[in-house]
Amino acid sequence: MMTVLSYQIADTIDIKQFKAAFKAELCHSDADELFYQTGSEQYIYVFKYGVVCFLNYDAIKISAFLQLISAFCKNLFAEQLSEEFIIETEAKETKIGYNKIEIVSADIEVLRLIMLNVSQSVALDYYSAQTDKLLEESNYHTKSLEKRGRLDISGVSLKKYIGKTLLLKNRISENLYIFDSPPETWEDENLNKIDLGLKRTFDLQERFRDVSEGLQIVKDNLELFKDLLQYRNSTLLEWIIIILILVEVLNLLIGKVFG
User: Which helix (H) or strand (E) holds 98?
Assistant: First the structure.
């Protein structure tokens, strides 16, 4: 039996710098991920989007590695999201359960695919939690608009909220590839079967759709809030202009009367 443990530890990890610093057997790499074999049936998978995945690692070694890689992280989390998954080998056929998979043999590409899917699941947990926070804040302002007929937020605060939302949306858009099947599954029927089964088990497509729809709702609300803010600012500007004109007219009248 093997244990996969995946952690979302930061917003991003500098893959390029970490690759140059960490010396171990590199089995797969590209601009977004690094897959290492560090011992007999021991693997580490590092992803640019802030996830680190371990296979057959104990708690002490995991803690030591996370401490090592923290120097290459941006916005390191105080509390880490994690997910555990069990791999049982030497099965007669591939079977995927709620929190485990039975495989015929521990082929390295099969192990990497399993670790990839577990890591995608952890990343979705993080994005779902962030999207829920944005939705909650958006709903608060929407309810305030319904009750009072105006936004209970200053222009500066609204701009900060818009920036925070766009930052998250852009980050998810940049990492859309993580929910795609890797190229290896296109040519290998067994890998493709395992990949599809794991995606169903972790409900990756549905969860990703929920995140996308949630962000779209927030985006639509932001458009409304922005339009209302612009209207409020333009109305204020109009009143300022009217007051200035009135002051000028009064000055002219006073000048003529007392001139």
Answer: none
